[in-house]
Amino acid sequence: MQNEITQIKELLKRFGYHSQSYNILRNDKSYFYSSSGIDGVIAYVVRANVAMAAGDPVCDPSDIRNFVTEFKQFCKDQKWRCCFQSVTERSKDILAEMGFGMIKIGEEPIFDLEEFSLSGSKFRGLRKNINQAKKQGLSIVEYHPLLKREPEWEKEMEELSAIWQKFKGSGEFAFLIGEPALDNPQERKYFLALLDNKVEAFVVCTPVYTRNGIYFDVMRRQEKTPNGLPQLLFTESFRILKEQGYKMATLGTAPLSYEHTTDSDQSRIIKTALKLAFDRLGYFHRFKPLYKFKRQFGPTSWEGRYLAFSPSRFNPVILYALLKVYDPTSVTEKLLNQINRAWKGINKIKDESVGFIGSTSGSVIKGIKGTSQKAVATTKKTLQKIPGSIKINKYQTEKEE
């Protein structure tokens, strides 16, 4: 196994373009390799007969089409649906040409660290928050556990993670979401916000090899923190990374945010279902402060992220599998039945813009592909029947507003 991980790390260093690609090293994945000699790997997890691949195929861009063709056939042989979660723009176009269904799931803010600056009236409010944090005695440091261990800091970091897990109601997330991993830091970077040498908050970052970049993966903090702490933590981390020669940073995907990009409304009903299910279950509550950060900082660019699936007819079992790979300890098969019942409620809609969406039973039920307000309202009503499985504390979702 260790030899395989070493091999995958080498592939990541050569081809790792996706911001979350480092997390394919987590041990919840299986790995697919080409039988025709293509140099690369596809990391995936199987849930409910859905093979959910983690991000882009890790290979030369010129090999993506042929590599995916092999993986797609492999899934067909196993009688699995074939999905790729959170693919980038460059993979999305290829998969769409290959007949995959495609749903935009969000946008990722990209920061060019060489150009990043907080000067100008645009960032006046941000600078005010940063100055408030500094006046309260906060400081930001990079912690290097492989060089020198700080037992007290690590104890406090573990306590912050325990607080987070308590309100989440289960263990750490999985799949494309990382973990603090203090017991095995490897190439992760840790930035700490200290007050009187005590850890008030920290972020864990992973490398984006081929873009000379850093992905801000995990954030943990006290329930009550000084004003301006998040702003200081991220801007100082950016400054340190810039001094170290990194070119790019990203704060992670903001699910289903469309403020700066245009996208077809053709699949609005499915997008609404995905968004409501994620919101209801609280899966991406951790991204909400990061979404507000991107608006504050003014990223250099925005990049779309997509869910690709084959066969191209969307099936609610995909939604269940998606939730299951991210949170394996909280999501049960009972949820699949609840999702399916909610989905079938859409069948009651009578609308001119009717399309077809596959059901888990294999039959075809009516769904809406257009922009019908009635369709959206009905989707909200039916999906609200899905119970929340995560206890969300108010501070986790509103602290950075």
What features would you describe in this structure?
There is one protein chain. The chain has 401 residues and is an alpha+beta fold. The chain has a domain at 111-253: Aminopeptidase. Helix content is 36%, strand content 23%. The protein has helices at residues 2-15, 64-78, 89-97, 124-135, 151-168, 229-243, 268-281, 288-297, 316-326, 333-344, 373-383, 394-398; strands at residues 30-32, 40-47, 50-54, 58-59, 81-87, 101-112, 139-143, 189-195, 198-208, 213-221, 248-250, 254-255, 301-310, 354-358, 364-368. The strands form two sheets. Strands 1, 2, 3, 4, 5, 6, 7, 8, 9, 10, 11, 12 and 13 form a 13-stranded mixed sheet that branches. The protein has a two-stranded antiparallel sheet with strand order 14-15. Strand 8 (189-195) and strand 9 (198-208) form a beta hairpin. Helix 7 runs parallel beside helix 11 (373-383) and helix 9 packs antiparallel against helix 10 (333-344). The model is unreliable at 258-266, 283-287, 347-372 and 382-401 (pLDDT under 50).
